[in-house]
Amino acid sequence: VLGLVPKEKLPTYNVFYEGRTFGHGQPGMAETHRGVPLGDYLFQFDFGVVAPEVCEDIWSADGPMRRRAYSGGELVVNLSASPFRLGFWDTRRELLATRASDHQVTIAYANAVGSNDGLVFDGGGFINQNGRPVLETPRFQEGYTTAVVDLDRTLRLRTENTTWRVDRESWVTSGGQKVPTVDCTQVKTKRDTLAYPVPAHRSFFLPAPDTRRPARVALCEDILDALALGVGDYFEKTRAFKLFGIALSGGRDSLLTLLIAHRYAKRARPDNPGSLIQAFYMPSPYSSQQTRDAAETIARELGVPFQVVSIEEAFEREKAAAQQMLGETKLTPITEQNIQARIRAQRMWNWSNSCGGLFLQTGNMSEKSVGYTTIGGDLMGALAVIANVPKTVVMYLLDYLQETTGYEGIRKVLAKPAGPELAHDQVGEEELMPFPILDACFYLHAGEKLTPSEMRTALTAMFPEVEAQRLSSYVDRFVKLFHQSIYKWVQAPLSLHIGNLDLDRERALQLPVVTGSAWLRDA
Predict the structure, then answer these.
(1) What is the pTM of this model?
(2) What does the pLDDT look like over 129-147, one tens digit per residue?
(3) Residue 123's Cα: distance from chain center in Å?
(4) Which part of the chain is the CN hydrolase domain (predicted)?
(5) Which of 102, 192, 290, 417 is at a distance of 20 to 30 A from 68, taking alpha carbons?
């Protein structure tokens, strides 16, 4: 160990709480730990000067890279544990190009891969030389990738860039403190054995072959890979489970959850992925033959063991017991619906306790946001796989998977309108609102923090085909249900995060359970 360089920028926002726990490094810090330099240092090797930094340091425009570059740092190496967020890969790429260009350095960036609790780290990395991309590595897999970089080019570009030189002179004359350099030239490299880094397609003027994926493929594959990694690492790292358990309803949410678990299982047990999963279908008097057939079909196509365990008798017994407790008060229709969901959850927990199964919760973010779920029922499970996936995205992913896999089970699920089948002829969009409008309400209110009147203005522009009065009623309904349902969210299981906006109260929204609504009343 030649030296230690502490992290300086400690994020304490969104999913990060580092400022509560750690102390940060500082400019000019010069200490030792067990005889090893600890502080703000550069490292001189026979190939160039290395400037180490950690994760958030690169995200701050006022980070340590500026003074280290002005002090002679040529190769910035950044070790990160940056969680997966939708679209964030492009943001990282642009940020690194900007930093490498602004500070006239070569940056080598490597991100952690794997999942811990609800956070998924998608891995991958970049090398960028003075604003020019050199290498971009695969994500969602462990490994290493190499590229040769001519650091003499970085020095030449510094010499030619008068703006950078003038800015450095101003920094020096205004009292900028030079970062000391640790001599590491005793470590010998084999620079003389490297070949000049010429383009693979052997042209300095023509573009390289375009290997970028279409936007739809990139979005869907990233979400599916992230969720499969999250499910798999939770399953493996807890060391408490032997297989996955899923209660299939024949609907969209449980279908997507099954496909994500199977995606992981194909990597873990390529010869027999279905042996890692057990699927159950628990019909009540309101379950249709159509959903049963859809659930059975997809289980058969995936090679997943499938059992039908009726809850009809248990449902009748529980209704009678509940009515006895109520006396003269009549059992409400919503209670009858919840009884069915709770019986199914109880049976899944009993199965899990006895066979070491990981009971996967299958609810989506949109319906969870308005409380369209049952405490003690379908809200329950050990791990919530798609709890931060909006309903419109669930349907988008299933359309994509239908096109790419051709599974008949997916087609059969999509052929029926989405609904919980806890009463006759239930359709989710009829009981709530159209899912595109529901998701827009969620984004505008929870994400953009818009008031109801501001939401109405935005929705009118977004959905001009819907009459204003109806849109207004949707807004009022959403806001009321959203704030009344917070007490449900805090009882939900651990969920996987794929974006900055989700329903994890301790991380993203940080809303109290008990809250008034007077502040929401507006014209």
Answers:
(1) 0.93
(2) 999 999 999 999 999 999 9
(3) 13
(4) 1-151
(5) 192
Take residue 467 and report the two structure tokens written for it. Answer: 């009459």
pLDDT tens-place string over residues 185-196? 999 988 888 999
Mean pLDDT calculated for residue range 217-241: 97
The DSSP result for 328-394, as a single string, is: TSPPPHHHHHHHHHHHHHHHHHHHHHHHTEEEEE---HHHHHTT-S-TTTTT--SEESSTTS-HHHH
| DSSP at 283 | -
Q: What is the pLDDT of residue 124?
A: 95
Q: 3-state class of 155 per DSSP? A: helix
pLDDT in tens, 398-445: 999 999 999 999 999 999 999 999 999 899 999 999 999 999 999 999
Which residue has 């024949």 as its token pair? 250
Which residue has tokens 């609810």?
Answer: 363
Please give the Cα distance from 471 to 453 (Å, whole number): 11
With DSSP H G I counted as helix, E B as strand and the rest as coil, what are the percentages for the chain, rounded to 5?
45, 15, 40
From the CA atom positions of the chain, what is the Rg in Å?
A: 28
Contact 394, 256 (CB under 8 A): yes
- Phi/psi of residue 255, each to 5°? -65, -50
By the 8 A CB rule, do 269 and 276 touch? yes
Compute CA distances 440 → 33, 139, 486, whole Å. Answer: 53, 30, 19
- Confidence check: pLDDT of 521 > 80: no
Q: Summarize pLDDT for 296-342 with one digit per residue, the tens.
A: 999 999 999 999 999 999 999 999 999 999 999 999 999 999 999 99
Name the token pair of 36. 């090893």
Neighbour count for residue 332 (Cβ, 10 Å): 11
Task: Give the residue with greater pLDDT, 117 vs 411.
Answer: 411
How far is 111 from 140, CA to CA, in rounded Å? 10
Q: Are strands 243-247 and 277-281 parallel, antiparallel or unpaired?
A: parallel
Neighbours of 215 (CB within 10 A): 8
Write the burial class of residue 474 (CB in 10 Å: 0-12 exposed, 13-18 middle, 19+ buried).
buried
Q: In whole angstroms, what is the distance from residue 175 CA to residue 153 CA?
A: 28
Which tokens go with 139? 């994500």
Residue 191 CB: number of other CB atoms within 10 A? Answer: 12
